[in-house]
Amino acid sequence: MEEVVKGIADINGVLDIMWILIAGALVFFMQAGFTLVETGFTRSKNTINIIMKNLMDFCIGSVGFWLIGYALMYGDDISSFIGTPSLFFNDAGEMHNLFFQTVFCATAATIVSGAIAERTKFTTYLVFSLLMTVLIYPISGHWVWQGDGWLTDLGFIDFAGSTVVHSVGGWAALVAAAMVGPRIGKYTNGKSNAIPGHSILFGALGVFILWIGWYGFNGGSELAISGDSAAHVSNIIITTNLAGAAGGLAAMFFTWIKYGKPDASMTLNGVLAGLVGVTAGCAAVDNFGAMAIGIICGIIVVLSIEFVDKKLKVDDPVGAVSVHGVCGAIGTLCVGLFATDGGLFYGGGFGQLGAQAAGVFGIGLWAIVASFIVLFILKKTMGLRVSEKEEIEGLDIHEHGMEAYPDFRLNEH
Length: 413
Hints:
Layout: H1 2-40, H2 47-74, E1 77-78, E2 82-83, H3 95-115, H4 122-145, H5 150-154, H6 162-180, E3 187-188, E4 191-192, H7 200-219, H8 229-259, H9 264-278, H10 287-311, H11 320-338, H12 351-381, H13 388-393, H14 395-400
Antiparallel strand pairs: 1-2, 3-4
């Protein structure tokens, strides 16, 4: 009997690790989704630059997070603030967790790419991506997910990273976009001018890929699939899916009413907004709560994109600040409202909502201040922005020496 129990435990352990690795691969595939969204929503002359930034986010993130980021995030706690530093994480029994957390780390860094697209120096971006990987993201992540962080002690809930991943990336994107300044021609006489992307098809394909990846992002965060976790993962995937669908519907109908036509790019961002919003509470809310979160975020993302663009005059070509920063924060707060255990609307009072607000504010402040310090130093040393000539002619040819869509007629003999 003892051997049977041990055998079942061994099988369950293998299943759990296999699920984490599969989920991690799905999250890695989100890099392709981000690349397509950012490429599609910007101009063709900067396509290679965006491809390189997204590629390097994962390359730098993989090495940097293994080098020290994982230890700062998950190492033995120091004053509820940071993990004990150590180099070259190499615990043979934890490699699956290193992989899963690496793909999350790369996602946080990639969010910044789209907000500062078409005018930022490639070399400077690489340095910032490294510092996001080894410092900014791991420290705030430690507060929530290591187990002894100060937000864990408060009872803060962020199951898969609405705030830990998405808002950190979104607030860093806001600071970066504001500091690098708008694209040439974006604002004239105080008026915002639309600069259309070159392929809504790429943007749509990117959103579908991100949606698929989110099943691994949220479902994998259960960190198991054996036993009761099988039902938990299934529920998480359903709440995730419903929120994304509700976000898309809400954005479509809202823009239809507001503009007279259903706006495709806003609807795509509405899907992402719903997915970002439910990521914190995907394991804590029921299907109705997930739908509510999706609808709220699908509407808010439209209003936020307009506010950031027209009121703040911050040029964010893909809406990253609104999708990830704002909707990440809203979704995290919604856990305090819709959690079936402790949510305000389920008789739990204001306690959970207070803990959620503390996490949103604390992590948001950290991301903004840390990003500003890093970017300020980079601006004074390396510079953030390419020259006017380089921006007008395109980053592809100046930063990388090639074009994504060369005119083949020039090569004919």
